[in-house]
Amino acid sequence: MAYETILTETRDAVTLITLNRPKALNALNSQVLEELIDAFATFEADDSQRCAVLTGSGDKAFAAGADIKEMSEKPAADFYLQDFFARWTSEIVKKVRKPWIAAVNGFALGGGCELAMMADFILASENAKFGQPEIKLGVAPGMGGSQRLTRAIGKSKSMEMCLTGRMMGAEEAERANLVARVVAHDELLDEAMKTAATIAGMPPMAAIANKEMVNAAFETGLDQGIIFERRLFQILTASEDKKEGMEAFIEKREGNWKGR
Ligand code: HXC
């Protein structure tokens, strides 16, 4: 598929996907969705690729939200009958088992904030600004924001952000546990690629299992989550990479992963 609204490149085992509508602050329209789904499916299917980074082009925005101009024309029946926004979750969250990072370089508002929160974690530049301003448009988050933001930062802060539409800067977002780390604006992409390369260098089955078990914490009760973790741990002990990883440690050398 030839892309018009995103850019993709691979650097060794890391796929970089860049939202590329800078004049519209990388607003997320239907074409962006289709292209992102394709790019993530390509990343997932390519055995040479182990981790991805998603960022925004230009200096101002990761993504300033779902495309308001597109949504303004759409009848309510279409939103409902097409189950609008459902595919973001089913295709980009549920089907992607490999880890990926959102590198938030500016505004991450509405659907942009929601897309960033679909990532396994967020790295933010000092200029990042997060918000769910949908209320000002007469709507509300529609791509998981009210749920993921609340799980990340708690009820009080999430409720305040959704009800007032105010933006949260990078430092506050780090304090509130919305982002893993804040880095200097000019260093964001390098740092995200470096972090992704570290993850890409891990045993691949273990990377997927670690992601699955952390995600299980949001879906299950504590007892079930701990059993799920233990079973995955036990499965990993049967892998060739477990044997290699432990031998490599004892022999004081780097592991040479087989991915099995
Ligand atoms: C379409 C957008 C856009 C968006 C910005 N643009 N955000 N186009 N959809 N979400 C366009 C502007 O129309 C403008 O185009 C250009 O990008 C630059 O934006 P400006 O507003 O001129 O920039 P600035 O003054 O710096 O303000 C930046 C901003 C503001 C604070 C981020 O653009 C803004 O508030 N944007 C909307 C944020 C928002 O409400 N997001 C939530 C969307 S709803 P022109 O052609 O005029 O130059 C959503 C729903 C989720 O995401 C799902 C549930 C419904």
UniProtKB/TrEMBL annotation:
Similarity field: Belongs to the enoyl-CoA hydratase/isomerase family.
Transmembrane segments: none
Reactions it catalyzes: a 4-saturated-(3S)-3-hydroxyacyl-CoA = a (3E)-enoyl-CoA + H2O; a (3S)-3-hydroxyacyl-CoA = a (2E)-enoyl-CoA + H2O
UniProt keywords, alphabetically: Fatty acid metabolism, Lipid metabolism, Lyase
SUPFAM superfamilies in the record: ClpP/crotonase
UniProt keyword annotation of Flavoprotein present: no
Pfam families recorded: ECH_1
Main function: Could possibly oxidize fatty acids using specific components.
Protein name: enoyl-CoA hydratase
Biological processes, Gene Ontology terms: fatty acid beta-oxidation
PROSITE patterns in the record: ENOYL_COA_HYDRATASE
Highest taxon of the lineage: Bacteria
Recorded GO MF terms: enoyl-CoA hydratase activity
Enzyme class, UniProt record, top EC level: lyase
Enzyme Commission code(s) on record: 4.2.1.17
